Amino acid sequence: MRRIFLRLHVTVEEAHERGEARDLGEVCVETGYRLPDNGWVIPDVSVTHAGQPEGKYLEDSPAIAIEKVSPSNTAEDLAVKTALYFQFGAREVWRIYQKTRQVEVHVPGGSRAVSADQAVTTPLLPGFSLRVAEILGE
User: Fold this and answer.
1) Four-CA torsion 26, 132, 108, 54, nearest 10 degrees
2) CA geometry: angle 122, 55, 60, nearest 5 deg
3) Taking the complete model, does pTM exceed 0.90, yes or no?
4) What is the pLDDT of residues 45-63, one digit of tens each?
5) What is the 3-state secondary structure (H, E, C) of 114-128?
6) Where are the alpha helices (DSSP H) in 48-105?
């Protein structure tokens, strides 16, 4: 997850210096987000919305939530968590599957699978590209 954090951090900072990606805030690792229903989520890596309300936790969902899927995660749990992210303002949710060597990129109303020989990109962050193999440490 460190590779994703570092690459996203550099790319967001560079985009901000160019006056791009103004709707994105900062890149965080294992940061808590309090949801309006008094629930909370802690994505492995996230990118906040610019000016996202903050208290003890950040408020609502991040703009981009990135989760490394573990064997204990059920499909139902992942679906519920992804729906919560979108319900409270996420624009993308990335799920990293080590075992199948792919990343699923979810957006409201759809998703796409990115295989190990491809790169994850996002329209939210022009110029960002990270090979799935690199995310997986290969």
Assistant:
1) -20
2) 40
3) yes
4) 999 999 998 777 899 999 9
5) EECCCEEECCCCCCC
6) 75-87
* Amino acid, single-letter form, for residue 109: G
Instruction: Read off the amino acid at residue 35.
Output: L
Q: Using only the alpha carbons of the chain, give its radius of gyration.
A: 14
Q: What are 90's two structure tokens?
A: 């996420």
Q: Give the Cα separation of 16 and 38 in Å (integer).
A: 32
Task: Give the separation between CA 44 and CA 24, rounded to whole angstroms.
Answer: 17
Q: Which two tokens stand for residue 6?
A: 């570092």
Task: State residue 74 phi and psi, 5-degree precision.
Answer: -90, 160
C-alpha to C-alpha distance for 5 and 45, rounded to whole angstroms: 6
Q: With a cut of 80, say whether residue 78 has pLDDT above it.
A: yes
User: Which structural domains are found in the chain, ordered by start?
Assistant: 2-135 (3.90.1570.10)
**Cross-sheet strand order for the sheet of 58-59:** 40-41, 33-34, 58-59
The two structure tokens encoding residue 119: 């790169």
